[in-house]
Design brief:
single chain, alpha/beta, Rossmann fold, 2 domains, six-stranded mixed β-sheet, four-stranded antiparallel β-sheet, 10 helices, 27% strand, elongated
């Protein structure tokens, strides 16, 4: 097993005034993966990125990038880290190519027009290279931010809400660009509140809330472990009570007995099997229903459930 590209242990950050943004974060990132960090506003996502990128000074814990302790080898490690911040940041009257050249020089890299051309072409920006940034669309400006972050050929790239404020079509185009970056060997950490984004792109997913990591796992493993089945039986006639033969299942009545609702399963297919068993029992015992709708949990459902679970402090 290769060493992780990023290893964070017991990372803490308390701001002046006592606001605790990070409360003992442990996180390991594998080389070559796309990792999605999900969390609501104020969860600590941007603070975590800032700590790794040297913009936020932690109050506790350790960060190792490329095997180096960032407390003592920050400059060496930072040269291999790219950041696309949530907020657009550049001289709007400058041209695209000058901004990308400038970013490359900021990291001490020698001028290399072939590298700049390759980056701009890969992001469909070559035809806009001499355009002033103020003339570009929102989606193109996002691409310029990515080009700047790639200008020094980083091995690890942070994307902080990269598709915030762009429409669905541009968002999907951005996903294709990010997948292409992974193909080039760039490890990507993506923060987002678009659950669809994580489902589409990520290899692994982490959920952060109130400065603490609630869960980290492969996306498919999360769906398997925490996925649930929900089924709605439209009862005809309505039920006054749940029949004894159905009481062993996780069911309840809604809408005055007009709907029997099942919520259960464990992501292994148990839910589907129990819904089928429910339907068989009801048919055998003459318990009538006019319709049946079922659905499996999405990553968004699991995310919402995790955020709504009581914390240890509240328990």
């Amino acid at each position: 097993m290769t060493d992780p590209i990023l290893d964070i242990r017991d990372l803490e950050k308390t701001y002046d005034g006592g606001v605790k943004a990070l409360g003992g974060v442990d996180l390991t990132i594998r080389a070559g993966e796309i990792f999605a960090l999900l969390g609501p506003n104020g969860a600590g996502k941007t603070t975590l990125i800032g700590a790794v990128c040297g913009m936020v000074r932690p109050t506790g814990g350790t960060i190792r990038a490329f095997g180096m302790d960032m407390a003592t080898h920050w400059k060496a490690a930072r040269k291999d880290i790219g950041l696309v911040p949530q907020e657009l940041s550049f001289d709007m009257f400058d041209t695209v190519i000058r901004q990308v050249r400038f970013s490359r020089g900021m990291f001490g890299c020698p001028p290399d027009e072939a590298v700049i051309e390759d980056i701009l072409k890969s992001l469909s920006l070559w035809d806009k290279r001499d355009s002033q940034i103020r003339e570009l669309s929102g989606g193109m400006k996002r691409r310029v931010m990515i080009a700047k972050a790639l200008s020094h050929d980083p091995k690890l790239l942070f994307l902080d809400e990269p598709t915030a404020g762009v429409d669905v079509e541009l968002r999907r185009d951005m996903w294709r660009q990010i997948d292409a970056l992974r193909t080039r060997g760039v490890t990507i950490i993506l923060t987002t509140h678009y659950i669809e984004e994580a489902e589409e792109m990520a290899d692994r997913v982490g959920v952060i809330s109130k400065g603490r990591i609630l869960l980290v796992d492969d996306k498919d493993a999360i769906m398997a472990k925490l996925g649930r089945t929900e089924a709605h039986f439209d009862m005809e006639p309505r039920l006054a009570d749940i029949p004894a033969s159905l009481s062993r299942f996780p069911v309840h009545l809604e809408e005055g007995g007009k709907r029997l609702v099942y919520r259960g399963g464990d992501g292994t297919g148990k839910g589907k099997r129990e819904v089928a068993e429910l339907a068989q029992i009801m048919a055998r015992e003459g318990i009538g229903y006019a319709g049946l709708d079922t659905k499996e949990s999405s990553l968004e459902d699991i995310f919402v459930d995790l955020l709504n679970e009581p914390t240890e402090e509240a328990a």
